[in-house]
Amino acid sequence: MSSSRSLVASPTLGLPIARMRSVFKADEVERKLAHLQASGNEREYEGLRNTWQRMLERGPQRFAVKPSGVPDMAPLYDLLPNFGEVLDDVKRHVALSQDSHDGLEVTPILLLGPPGVGKTHFAKQIADLLGTSMSLVPMSSMTAGWLLSGSSSQWKGAKPGKVFEALVDGQYANPVIVVDEIDKAAADAQYDPLGALYSLLEHDTAQQFVDEFAEVPIDASQVIWITTANDERAIPEPIRNRMNVFEIAPPSPDAARKIAAHLYRGILGEHDWGQRFDPEPADDVLDLLATLAPREMRRALVTAFGNARLDKRFSVEPGDLPRAGTGKSRIGFLQ
């Protein structure tokens, strides 16, 4: 399960180092599929048959990536000034993986903080930094306990879980998986929605993670776990003890201005129309943006750009920003 081979190593170019790693054993899938075909129950378990066939078509090899050197993280410290301790922790793990054949291992991270401080946005930035993908598992909207681990193929509408999807359907053996609002997961008497995490957050047991739908061991030991929560008291202690816990405070006014200015420039760079706007926001616009939570800033800016264009201007003024707390015009951050 842990077999891997070097594919790319380009430290001089600053590109990620990639190795190929098997995330499942093809012969085990072949045996499962042959047994199903011999049983004559293919039609009854069509979804399961299709899943195993897809696994064999895609093959077990996935990219396991890591930076080829400790990357320059100064821009991230500027963009995420209230995440300094977490960034320090990620940098330590990246440094440990350098100059060796070891893969990048990051101790699971728990980000504690009020809504809107940018926890999910931080996870996306880390995935981009490491050159891998990100999957979001929103526990607050969970309606069943199988979102992480899949549901039994015997149930109608059953399907694999998010971990299986990220590893088998994705390109990477070490994706970032974000368990968002882990404290909102409601356990019931029949199934603990966080039960899968007891093994997934431990390196050794994660190597043989079995999705309840696919029933085939998956190597999830390289997954980079980031969980978010508003209240750690709602998280079972055995799960909390498996993670490095960081309390994320709202950014200071000065830091909030830096975040707003970065988002302003980022939005301009993402769109062709951005070339026509002022390259930097005005100070009075920054003053207003700094009063918003980071999750609200981006949508506020997009609204402001639109209002400026309706007024045939290419400069954003304070009056272009939406007013917070006005019912249906409530704004939110596109994470």
Protein described:
- With 335 residues, the protein is of the alpha/beta class.
- It contains twelve helices and ten strands.
- It has helices at residues 26-39, 46-58, 74-79, 84-96, 119-130, 162-169, 197-200, 203-206, 237-240, 253-270, 283-289, 294-310, and strands spanning 4-8, 17-22, 61-66, 109-112, 134-138, 176-180, 209-210, 217-218, 224-229, 244-247.
- Strands 5-6-9-4-10 form a five-stranded parallel beta sheet, with helices on both faces. It has a three-stranded antiparallel beta sheet with strand order 1-2-3, with no helix packed on it. A two-stranded antiparallel ribbon has the order 7-8.
- Helix 1 (26-39) packs antiparallel against helix 2 and helix 10 (253-270) packs across helix 12.
- Residues 1-13 and 326-335 have low confidence and may be disordered.
Provide key terms for this protein:
335 residues, alpha/beta, five-stranded parallel beta sheet, three-stranded antiparallel beta sheet, 10 strands, elongated, disordered N terminus, disordered C terminus
